[in-house]
Amino acid sequence: MATNIKNQIWYDAMWDLAKAVGRYTLKEAESYENVKTIVNSQDLTTETDLLLRSVAVYETYTTGLINSMFGSLSSQLLLLPVTGYWSPTLETYLNTNNFKVSQLLLDVVKDNDIILPSDLIYEEGFWEHKSLIIDKSNLYSLYHFEINVSEDSDFSTILASADSSVSATGWLYEKEEEEFVPIPIDGVPSSYIDRNIMYQSLSTEYLERGKEYYFRIRQKDQYNTYNFIYYRDSIGT
Amino acid sequence: MISPTDYKIVADQINEIQLIDETAIEFIDFMEGEIEDLSILNEPVDRIKTNITEVKPKLNTRFTTENSISSFVRDLQLHVLNNTIYTDINDYLEDYEIKVGQLFADVSARVGYPISSSNIVGGS
């Protein structure tokens, strides 16, 4: 297996595990809100019938549960580059591949055993998008990309928006297999179809940890602006 | 008794808690596929695969049979039925035009209070 592909698979697995952990951290907050709703009802019958049950739900989803559920898995995945003899240390591995990891995974590792410098840990709320460049025009094209994020499925309110034709900041494309470099000002040539592009959020675009959002992305070239592709994703940092 | 507004809020919160489980399981499934792609490498990958096979049933159990969630929803529906004229939770939902999420409805059905599709968000 090519080294670049192996590294990218590890990185993708790290993101998916972090998103699962992120979802669970939100569960604790959501069940706390449930308790608050019952308390704030200010109705004795409601509190008598439901408060203890509500607290029981909250107590089910404490930090201890998240750690016991995901701690060992996080540790094994984070240390795979070391135990698999890919790299002498995790820090070296991350630096060599220009990777960072999610704080969420470090938090659930038993006794916080894995210590990394802050520049190798994504800031809370950071997110990134990766997708294939698709052949849209059947002509030689220079592709740009636009991404929007919303809490609403109809995108009535846009929380974050980035367009590589306006600013290339945060936009990368896969120039060599699994190796990402900044998108050129003129756009990505159509010779890179079936390679990936990536958008890495700016600090002003950070979103809520663990929360699920609606995303849409579209391509544009010198001829057309194409339809959006829609999906949902969670914040794993 | 609980107001219809608070009932709706609470039902949505339970739905969201269940949705969190569902999406967490999806992410672990994705991760499992990625780790499978690394299978040819060596023994540490096998340990991760073993760990995933232990975590997934726990997540699934939380999603499908979590006692605290079941008990809360059962007591919520009983609370409504015991403090109103209604004998079927669907009549209460219809009269107050409350639509609940599918995952809340799934739990409700699990504890003996099935909810009609007309009272479920996106239902007919």
Characterize the structure shown.
The complex is a heterodimer of chains A (237) and B (124). Chain A is an alpha+beta fold. Chain A folds into 2 domains: 3-122, no CATH class; 128-234, Immunoglobulin-like (Sandwich), CATH 2.60.40. Chain A has helices spanning 3-40, 44-60, 63-78, 80-83, 90-97, 103-108; strands at residues 101-102, 121-122, 128-132, 142-150, 160-163, 171-176, 179-182, 188-189, 196-200, 212-220, 229-234. In chain A, strands 4, 5, 8, 10 and 11 form a 5-stranded antiparallel beta sheet that branches. A 4-stranded antiparallel beta sheet of chain A has the order 3-9-6-7, with no helix packed on it. In chain A, helix 1 runs antiparallel to helix 2 and helix 1 runs antiparallel to helix 3. Chain A starts with a helix and ends with a strand.
